[in-house]
Specification:
The protein has 167 residues and is of the alpha+beta class. The protein has helices at 9-18, 67-78, 95-104, 144-159; strands at 3-6, 25-33, 37-41, 65-66, 86-93, 114-123, 128-136, 164-166. It has one domain (3-166).
């Protein structure tokens, strides 16, 4: 687990809300506080996609909403002349990306061992911090996935010119 203090909040927010930079993520949950506190549970409601008028072959592919599909809603809640009081986003990397990271890093674990590679994004009104985490299905003494995930995010931010300081 690593903590990243984002140096240029405006740049980060522009990439997060206005571009496809974070489209390889799923939204597990969001809490956005402006004039009200808005809470979004990112779990997909499979029942919504079944029934008389829907085709079962169009079921959502993930447990959580894709960030690209919910990004504009979050943007609408945050945009305006006033800075949000704060927000917290819990993003999960898409499973196929986890598999790629594990294979590229030569990890002895597989996707069946890892529940999620998580990126927590927290803004408190002035400071924006991102914290990585790895969720496992069971205890694993091998810390390779944690290191691979931290390295991936460090590279992800650097490659996309998102300035940060490790905390």
């Amino acid at each position: 687990m690593k903590s990243y203090h984002i140096k240029d909040v405006k740049n980060f927010m522009g990439r997060l809300l206005g571009t496809s930079t974070f489209d390889s993520f799923l939204l597990a949950e969001a809490t956005i506080t402006t004039y009200n506190t808005f809470t979004i549970d990112g779990h997909m409601e499979k029942e919504f996609f079944t029934g008389d008028i829907n085709d079962d072959r169009i079921m959502p592919p993930y447990e959580f909403s894709q960030w690209k599909d919910i990004r504009s809603l979050c943007f609408d809640l945050i945009k305006g002349k006033r800075t949000p009081v704060g927000f917290k986003l819990v993003l999960h990397l898409k499973p196929e990306m986890i598999t790629q990271i594990l294979k590229a890093g030569g990890a002895a674990v597989t996707l069946s061992d890892i529940k999620a590679f998580v990126l927590n994004v927290k803004y408190d009104g002035s400071t924006l911090t991102c914290i990585t985490a790895t969720a496992f299905y069971t205890f694993l003494p091998d810390k390779t996935p944690d290191k691979l995930w931290d390295d991936f995010i460090t590279h992800f931010f650097s490659e996309r010119e998102i300035p940060f300081e490790e905390g």
